[in-house]
Amino acid sequence: MALQSHHLEAFVVISRVQNFSKAAESLNVTQSALSHRIAGLEDELGAPLFIREKKGIRLTELGEEFLRYVQMKNALEEQFLSKIKSVQGETLKGVLRIGCYASIGRAIVLKTLAPFLKNNPGVQLFFLMREMKNLPDLLKSGEADFIFMDYEFGKGKVVSHFLGEEEFVLAESKDGCKDPNLYLNHDEDDFMTHRFFEKQGDQEVKIRRLYLDEMYSCIDGVAHGIGRGVLPLHLVKDDPRIRIYTDYSSLKMPVYLHYFEQPIRSELEKQIIELFQQEIPKQLALT
Known about the structure:
- The chain is of the alpha/beta class.
- 45% of the residues lie in helices and 24% in strands.
- It is built from 10 helices and 11 strands.
- Helix 1 packs across helix 2, helix 1 packs across helix 3 and helix 2 crosses helix 3.
- The radius of gyration is 22 Å and the shape is elongated.
- The N and C termini lie far apart (52 Å).
């Protein structure tokens, strides 16, 4: 059975945007034409690929597996075409989608990628910064090929590599903070402050919180004396605006690389996995 390329393209776009009307606009087709393509693909496969819900659509279990197949197929085709088009065949081409959280994104992951991207200008990077809770959905929807998290998940189909640890410390402005009980977090689901004091064994700490949305705003907020923060040591240790409390034990959080297990991988994916496994532990050890 030969699957039609325009059906596969429609499937991939819908999987990423999770909305038929947005996908139709992206592909420059009518929504009815797009629905017809997906219906045809589902008929060929003999099973539904999407679950339609009031809040939107999501992939079925088969849909998630089929998306990984299509992505692998596209990656291998891109690799083959780049080889026959290039006389030298020295650089890699393809699409690289990486989902990451803020504290290691710019300072560690992007730093690790920079030399590789310079040497392989044909690689198209999508670097997606998200809250930790949103990263698994990026992987499942195919919006990201690789994600970084501070815990393991999805054993079985998902491969998890432990890369090292990130160290968190209690910090405040060099000029002090008027309210020692006020702490700066990303959002209400960010419990790093509570984790830190649980490690100290201190159950009596009064914690009030302000929410500054992302890591670098929290660092600036601490530096400006708005409140205290439990922050990554590697991001604040050389910041002249910030004082680190050394009489508290630091909190160490693991860093994991996750990706779906595949029977065949493109050369780009192989080299990226090897790069991350070799270089990111070195970067984390330096922090």
